[in-house]
C-alpha cells in the first residue's frame, strides 16, 4: 500500500523553532529522510524505531545527487507508511523541493507540505533587525549564491541586486560573494552599503558579523570556512559594527 510523504520544514536548526505540525509529523513518521542541516537535536522528536536516513548536501563535501534522493524518497513511500522528508529552513526556499514533488507525482504518491521558519527570518531575529524598514527598505529579495556547479549564477539580474534600497539575502554565497560584490559595485551599488554575514543561525555555533559590502567581500576572499551562512546587504537596521 502506497505511503504518504510529509515535506517538513525543520527551521534553521533550533528545535524550539519547529512548528507544532512539524513536531507531530516527526513523532509519527515511520521513516525520516533528513538534510544535513536539519539533523541533531531536531531528530530527537522522531519516535523510537523510525528509520533515520541522512540525504543532506553540503557545499565542498561529498553529497548524494538529487536524483538519488528523489528515487530513495519514492522507494520509501512505495513501501507504505508515513514518510517525512525533513528539510532545513523552509523547503520552498532553495530547498530542491520541486524536484522531489515531481518525483512523487510521477509515482502517484500523495504528499503534503509543512512550512518551516525560513532561515532569513531567524537570522534577522537573532541579529535584532527587521527585513523591511518603513521608508528605506520596502522590498526584500532572496537569491542563491551558486548554481548547480557551485559557481556564481550567470543569469542573475544584477541591476535588481544592485538596488541599494532593497534588503537582499544571499543563500549559499560565501564562496562566490567576492565576485558578486565586484559585479554589484560595478553596477552602482555603493561599496559602503551595510552588510551582514550570519552563520549557523539558531545553533550553538551561531555568529553574525556586520561590515560593508566591500569589506565583507575581502573578508570572505581570505577564507570562508564551512559553516552554513546567509549574507544580507542593503538598508539594514543600525547595529553594533564588528568591522568597518
Task: Reconstruct the topology from this structure.
Layout: E1 4-9, H1 20-28, E2 31-34, E3 51-54, H2 66-78, E4 82-87, H3 97-106, E5 111-114, H4 119-127, E6 139-144, H5 158-161, E7 166-171, H6 177-186, E8 194-199, E9 207-212, H7 213-221, E10 229-233
Helix pairs in contact: 2-3, 6-7
CATH topology of the largest domain: Methyltransferase, Cobalt-precorrin-4 Transmethylase, Domain 2
* SSE succession: EHEEHEHEHEHEHEEHE
Secondary structure tally: strands: 10
* Measured distance between first and last alpha carbons: 61 Å
Proportion of strand residues: 15-25%
User: In the CATH hierarchy, what is the superfamily of the largest domain?
Assistant: Tetrapyrrole methylase, C-terminal domain
Rg over alpha carbons: 19 Å
Largest sheet, described in full?
Answer: 5 strands, parallel
Uncertain segments of ≥5 residues (pLDDT<50)? 239-244
Shape field = elongated
Question: How much helicity do the residues have?
Answer: 25-40%
CATH hierarchy class name of the largest domain? Alpha Beta
> What is the strand arrangement across the widest sheet?
3-2-4-1-5
Amino acid at each position: 500500500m502506497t505511503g504518504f510523504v510529509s515535506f517538513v520544514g525543520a527551521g534553521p536548526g533550533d528545535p524550539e523553532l519547529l512548528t507544532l505540525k512539524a513536531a507531530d509529523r516527526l513523532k509519527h513518521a515511520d521513516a525520516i529522510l533528513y538534510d544535513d542541516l536539519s539533523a541533531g537535536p531536531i531528530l530527537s522528536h522522531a519516535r523510537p524505531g523510525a528509520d533515520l536516513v541522512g540525504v543532506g548536501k553540503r557545499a565542498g563535501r561529498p553529497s548524494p545527487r538529487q536524483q538519488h534522493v528523489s528515487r530513495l524518497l519514492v522507494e520509501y513511500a512505495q513501501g507504505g507508511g508515513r514518510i517525512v522528508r525533513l528539510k532545513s529552513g523552509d523547503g520552498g526556499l532553495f530547498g530542491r523541493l520541486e524536484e522531489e514533488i515531481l518525483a512523487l507525482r510521477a509515482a502517484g504518491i500523495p504528499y503534503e507540505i509543512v512550512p518551516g521558519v525560513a532561515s532569513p527570518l531567524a537570522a534577522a531575529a537573532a541579529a535584532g533587525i527587521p527585513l523591511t524598514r518603513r521608508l528605506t527598505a520596502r522590498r526584500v529579495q532572496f537569491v542563491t549564491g551558486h548554481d548547480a556547479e557551485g559557481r556564481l549564477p550567470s543569469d542573475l539580474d544584477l541591476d535588481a541586486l544592485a538596488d541599494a534600497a532593497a534588503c537582499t539575502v544571499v543563500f549559499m554565497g560565501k564562496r562566490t560573494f567576492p565576485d558578486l560584490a565586484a559585479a554589484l559595485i560595478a553596477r552602482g551599488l555603493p561599496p559602503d552599503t551595510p552588510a551582514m554575514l550570519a552563520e549557523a543561525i539558531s545553533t550553538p555555533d551561531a555568529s553574525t558579523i556586520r561590515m560593508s559590502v566591500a569589506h565583507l567581500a575581502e573578508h570572505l576572499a581570505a577564507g570562508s570556512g564551512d559553516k552554513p551562512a546567509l549574507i544580507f546587504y542593503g538598508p539594514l537596521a543600525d547595529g553594533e559594527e564588528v568591522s568597518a
